[in-house]
Amino acid sequence: MPATPLAQPPATAPRSRSAAPRRLMTAAAATLIVAAATPVTLAHAAPSASVSPTTVAPGGRVALNVAGCGTKVARVTSTAFNEVRLTPGNLEATNLFGSATVFSDASPGAHRVTFECGGPGGQSVTVSLQVTPGAARGGTGGSIGSMSTTQIAVGGTLAAAALVGGVWVLRRRAAA
Question: Residue 100's closest CA among 123, 70, 79?
Fold first, then answer.
């Protein structure tokens, strides 16, 4: 009897192991495409504002700054100074800047300073400005207001002695 070969199952191609990574790469690429096409919505936090300096005498100037408005204009109001419009400090308008002069007859004490993003009715934040009694010092900026006559005389004498000493040294060099 002739030998009959044993029946063998039909040959099938081995399953490719690279199909799973390919599917994973396709899913990742699709996710990236969807993420790139989705508009980004930034949640704006409440704006933050500052007045510098926070304590000022009547007639003094203050710098005004607000960040996080999301607009290119802001309005600042206070009982201490006239209304001020702030302008962008950069192209993205993330910071808006301005300055104001405190009224010369502003009453001493705390004054509310209200920053409104985009103008009236916009997002707002309020900070405090302290106005001190007295007037703003002009001229020398108050640098000699607390000096005595003796201190001024000693300083003048030292300056004159330095000048005379400098001239003496230069003349000796020129003669040598």
Answer: 79
